[in-house]
Amino acid sequence: MSSGVAHFMEGIVAKNPAEKEFHQAVHEVVESIFPVIEQHPEFKKAGILERIVEPERVLMFRVPWQDDDGEVHVNRGFRVEFNGALGPYKGGLRFHASVNLGILKFLGFEQIFKNALTTLAMGGGKGGSDFDPKGKSDNEVMRFCQSFMTELHRHIGPDTDVPAGDIGVGGREIGYLFGQYRRLTNRFDAGVLTGKGLGWGGSLIRPEATGYGTVYFAQEMLGTRDESFEGKRVLISGSGNVAQFAAEKVMELGGKVISMSDSSGFIIDDAGMDQEKLQFVFDLKNKRRGRIREYSERFKGAEYHEGRGVWNTPCDVALPCATQNELTGEDAEILLKNGCIAVSEGANMPSTPDAVDLFVARKTLYGPGKAANAGGVAVSGLEMAQNSQRMSWTREEVDAKLHWIMKNIHSTSVETAERYGTPGNYVNGANIAGFLRVAHSMLDQGLT
Ligand code: NDP
Fold first, then answer.
1. What is the pTM of this model?
2. Is the pLDDT of residue 3 over 90?
3. Class of domain 209-372
């Protein structure tokens, strides 16, 4: 670490104590952009770096709700409106027991650069709650969402701040949140949330977008070495929204998906997944809300393992699609030893810093989350555009736009990495390209 970066990080840690994921996310970006700032005295003079690490606004609020037995629970709600230079704040809501301010600040910070990379007009934000939807009834989830929106509705709007889904927030939750927003405001502001149902303003391909986009990005990376998904063994972690559609696209491109996981454990299916198995996962996770262990009970030959370890099986491509810091330096060593040539991140910051360092040092085709999983927010941007037009585009149209955006993010990352003297380094390419767009917009807009 250069002394300039070290000094800057000391300030970040002192000012944001105990927010370790936020420190990690800032550190990774600052490592990439510090040399760029040195070349741009106008950024330095305008304090771009000091301003970009400070959220424009942080909202924190009480969310009281009653369970089915009438017992009262209190969770904490958050919305981090991080940077609005490019457009309305945009980023998902996460409902998970682990949620705290530091995690949402890391996610909101990443979102600034990711949204910039899509080239669409979206600022960066993130929100959520430490509410855990697992094991709750539909009615309990609905009451929680209504209480959450009762506060949040004051702060959001189609031109202000547009939340979407993330871990623990899917179509069901977006529906309950939208219903309460509409009731409180007496407005059908379709563009206030994305990830809506198809019948009331949602976009085709939005559920698929993050997973498909991650695979499109991997396909582009593989293409730089004249490789493709055809016949490749692919490890996927997670079994939620991103993992499911990443699996679908890998299969469509001729790859063999051999794993999935959840927070309890993982399955290895050496025969590879097929349509029937994927349908089982859709039903298991999205309807019955069960555990991935059941996959191995249903399909012969698939093994279930409790706990961590999904990266220990030999593969050609790894797609981490569960959560932050799920792939450690040790996992990275094993993946590379076993012949893995590409890692494309569906999740946000799934690889720990030592894993990232190893991938970069060994010239692995490594697509960091803020580039590789930008397809989700990109199609959210397309959903907003359709809502403004009061039109719905076809599946083919949205998928073609998503594919084009992912190719464009890939080529921008490659070109920017080359221009700044680190060819093949997608981390630098994505961080610098995203940063430049935001920094120039902040300069244009004066001291905000
Ligand atoms: P889901 O809630 O649909 O699925 C999350 C999956 O990850 C589940 O299988 C879950 O298992 C697993 N998981 C969650 N926390 C942990 C943990 N601590 N340890 C191990 N496994 C865990 O979320 P998404 O698929 O939407 O999100 C997955 C990742 O993708 C997140 O990092 C998210 O930020 C990122 N992302 C999502 C986008 C989207 O459009 N949805 C857009 C861009 C990024 P379990 O059910 O047991 O909790």
1. 0.98
2. no
3. alpha beta
